[in-house]
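User: Round two. Same drill as before: sequence, then structure, for each protein.

Assistant: Same drill it is. First protein:
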Amino acid sequence: MIVIDADAIDRVLDRAGMVEALRRGFREAVVTPVRHHHAMPRAGEDDAMLLLMPAWTDGRAGLDDDAVTGVKIVSVVPGNAKRGLASVVGSYVLMSGVSGQPLSVLDGTRLTLWRTAGASALAADFLARPDARRLVMIGAGALAEHLIEGHTAIRPIEEVAIWNRSPDKAAALAARFADRPFRVRAVADPEAAIRAADVVSTATMSTTPIVRGDWLKPGVHVDLVGGYTPAMREADDAAIARARVFVDTREGATHEAGDVTQPLASGVLTPERIVGDLPELCRGTVAGRGGADEITLFKSVGTALEDLVAARLVHRAVADR
């Protein structure tokens, strides 16, 4: 069994390879049960939480060497703040889908960043204009850097504008891209940046919309990544109403994403107006962008399939070295 840390994941992965692995993965038959949530009460501090996210190659049609089983194990420990440790810690265990033998244990946090950005880039490959030049990044956390890397890998981006509620964080993120062929800058006015954008990507935990529908120009693609509970919201009703809406998975987005559940509850969005999800896009049963002036919107909450595919890709790359 191989232990694969965050640095090793960074060494063996590239953005285009991740996108193509996910494209193939969404065409596969993969079982993704409902994720498990287990509260772990603690004396003297907030309860901890254990999350288990399993997935496996569906063996009912037969198994080959590509068959794998995996589970992401995430511990959420609010009390770690006073210990000087991260509150969210993740690991991924990958096993043979044929024999069940363990293959590798991977850094789950880094794996999640790569696969999440990869899914957004995959969606943008179907939904963003081929000539998209201007990217706006809303948020400046760990995921924002990966989203910028993902989008610039699949579109000819020339300019990236970063907005964050903390301007210093936006400036620090922009500085990390100083040696890139595209221009990156922190901005103080999200409205002006979004109005000029070809692609808008968001990675926040906001409960009030940041992206306004009347700011969106014809042809823009909106990539909503941050909100992962029904209470979170990154785009307003006008944005949802103006766009052709796509999701990573219908089951996940319609139950977990406030940017979908709230408009569904109010009637701004109907289930029929969710045009498609990533499996449908990748299998060709749903068409992506339909015209140069069309506004498209993609909402993701993540799926265990992405973790499984990403872990398999990393394991093979490390094992082959």
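Second protein:
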Amino acid sequence: MEYTKILSDFCARLTYNDIPEQVIYKAKLCLLDYIANVYGSLEIEAVKNIIEFIKSITNKGTSTILGTKEKSDLLSAAFINGTTAEAIEAQDGLRFGGNHPVCAVMPAALTVGEKFKKDGKSILTSIIAGYEVANRVAASVHPFHTLSGFLPTGTCGTFGAATTTGKLMQLDEKGMLNAIGNAGYIVPLSMAEHLMGGYTIKIVQGGQAASAGIMAAGFAAHGITGFPKVFEGSELKGGFIQITSKAEPKPERLIDKLGEHFTIMDIYIKPYTGCRHTHGAVQGTLGLMKEYTFKPDDVDSIYVETYGIAELAVGKHITNNSSFVAAQFSIPYTVSACIFDGDLGPSQITEKRISDSKLIEFSKKVTVKAADDLNAMYPDKTSSRVTIKLANGQTIQKQVDIPKGDPRDPMDVEDIKQKIKRFAKRRKVNSDSLAEMVMNIEKIKDINELIKMI
């Protein structure tokens, strides 16, 4: 079966009027959330350094570096706008794909849309098509893509960005198939070892995917051809889903219920600046802090029970020499930061906060272990149970089975507006006006109207 062509043709033919109202609404939420994450990421020193370097080697162009009012060339702006989608680690995601489609799709949509002065309906359609491809490719190799050493945000996201760009360039079926095929040739490697080791280069995977995807579609628009079976491969078994997974891929997921179910509806939105596997513990801790009155000095020990993947991925401790990436992937740190600060936002992942010796010493009180009962509920539920023993002998406990932001407990417009306020504390951002424009983006004739507000 020609899985790549079926998916590609669907996206090439997709129109705004084909898309259900609830899918349009979800795309708007994802766009609004992306803007919040851009603001948060711009507070990170590593992001500032990346922007400074790129500015030093490029000439000022016409594409906006979102959140800065500065301009660069199109590919460099897309790279930065993808990096700011990713760096804060509060990006949206697909639970059964392990990917964060926003990091490649949104920067492609806004950067390319800005260049071609696209209207809001075109932007929304391109976003939904991009999510569809990025998510379906990720699902077809999940979870073995990551277990084989790849990060799907960078790899699968490239196909999403190519699709989004192809829509905005108005590629036909042949052109879209070439755009996706081209993406498979220039897709970044996105090694998972960098994330697991806490190396800060990890934050550019969205930027890599966005810029590569734009190039792939641009090449297609100029007659460059790509392998038409780039996902499933030929008899040589060299398709993307074959060569990037140690286990047998599931190509049927590329087209399952295509046109009936839009995968953007499966996307979760994060309230906190940490790996999604930390969120149950973070939410549980913050919940206990609202129910009980205690300070860090009142805590004897914290025992976090969770599912096995979470213990493996985010159960480790950090030191005051660790990176902010390591902190984002540490339950001991994120839980401790919540107890000290009452939040897990941009302020909790600054170099200054992470190097606080009192906070790091306190985090040693946190133990993370997988529990059989919680493991049994995974993957339907991503549960964490937080038990805090206080110095007065009192023991308090809270369990979270479905962290906030999951489609079963979604974040709404008001939640995301509050996230914008938290993430843009040092900026003069009118979250009400911004949300009003995003939630009515279909009325915009030129996306530059929105970009000027960011």
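The chain has 22 helices and eight strands.

User: Perfect.
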